[in-house]
Amino acid sequence: MRLGLFTPIFNGLPLDALLVELKKYPQIEALEIGTGGWPGNSHLDLDGLLASKEAARAYRTKLEDAGLTISALSCHGNPVHPKKEIAGRDDEVLRKTVRLAEQIHVPVVVTFSGCPGGSAQDVTPNWITAAWPPEFSDALAWQWEERLIPYWKGAAQFAKDAGVKIALEAHPGFCVYNPETVLRLRAAVGDSVGINLDPSHLWWQGIDIPAAIAALGEAIFHFHAKDVAIHGAMRDVNGVLDTKSYREMAKRSWLFRSVGWGHSELEWKRIASALRLAGYDYVMSIEHEDALASTHEGLSSAISMLSRVLLKEPPVEAWWA
User: Fold this and answer.
1) Which parts of the chain span the membrane according to its record (predicted)?
2) Which of 59, 149, 157, 160 is the most buried (most CB within 10 A)?
3) What's the whole-number average pLDDT of the chain?
4) Are the C-beta atoms of residues 37 and 75 closer than 8 Å to each other?
5) At what angle do helices 149-162 and 84-103 cross, to 10 degrees?
């Protein structure tokens, strides 16, 4: 496995300045680059590259000359949003991103599954987390059968025709938020859809990450290296479903942290080992969303731990093999 970086932490820098900044972190070998949606597109002109094969080729060459590859293009959005104008916008960005990935030979596009309303009349996404009262179960069935599966059948086929894999980031607030929902959607729409596995969104739900990795297996297309710290005193009183602002850090049940500031090195070694056992040998893409650490502090800390966790040499064949 190789170390990568999800670039929105440097959204204030243009591409050339980003490449200069990354010389401080020679362990980073791959970039995950936003094309639109919530990560934005500070380091890539989606329409411009699609309009010119020469520009697209020059863009990729510039990264290669800097010793970098692209692990994924990311366009986190909600293509099943109940407002048609938002759904249409995010679907357009996704399809453009898939086309660009095909053009510049990037194998993975990362996004969200999205979340529709609870009925055809809703205008606000409705993330349903309980089976009762019965209206919730009815609304959940409607979401999957009438919105989620029909949309992703088309999008999955579009990606498959382009030779690109869609890695859905399992994220609470959207219909796909844990391994079970990833595998349910994958079974319904095809194997060009899998997961961008981000432990930080699973730990606070009470999920054991190595167990999740074993269950997901070949459905793991990409991996975000991000940690989360559980505030035990708050969790013990209020549980883990927390709608307080991320600015109210001391009052929340959990916070996103840089790798190593929420879980131990041993836990991250368990994760790396589970990924190898599952056949994943691609990129750990560092995502920095730690409000308690500066960009340099958080990134340096993550690189330091993950460099110890990821073995660069192939494993030695055991004497009894």
Assistant:
1) none
2) 59
3) 96
4) yes
5) 20
